[in-house]
Queue: 2 jobs
Job 1
Amino acid sequence: MRLEISLSKEKFKSLKGRDVEALIEGNLSRVEETLKAEREDLLRERVSKLEEKLREMEGEIEELREFYEKALRDKEFMMGERDRLRKENEELRKAVEERKRELEKVHGS
């Protein structure tokens, strides 16, 4: 594995003559903790965004549920109205037929 580190001239000069590998190994645990903390922050942010999206989706689902329930109520109402109108139409048709027969009797006699 290859690792590249960029340093300013001043920092490079201050490290001259020192055991760089020991410095890196000595600071490795701090770097790991920093990376772990940054990753946890990133994950918390993602979780927060996902939770917000979930709440939005739950709201949309609730709106769809209400729309669907209203549509079902409207359908039931319309089917009831259709049945009522069919019966009314049948009764009117019978009344018209009855009236027609009565008029035929009167005019036919």
Job 2
Amino acid sequence: MSEESALRRWLIIALMSVFVLPIGATLIMASYKVATTAVPVVWGSWSAHSSRLQREEDRVARIRREGYDQNYQLLCPDYFNASILDRWTRYRSFSWCEDYRDRMPETN
């Protein structure tokens, strides 16, 4: 190996030691810091938000079911007396009445 290539090699090693290694170490430390501080905070927030959304969905489902239970005798006869085409078009939003079919008196 010539003296010039040895000098180049030494210069590259010195530059790597001065610039690349500290930057790499800094990136590793920053990644660790983010992983130990930001990730738990974000996970906790996401978890709380998901729980809140699930509770809200359960509450809405309970209120909807109570409304159906109170009003099926009034609303569902029209649905059951309608033709299949009407059920698919005009009474589409009353499809929940199918859950109450067994509670209804005989329809025409």
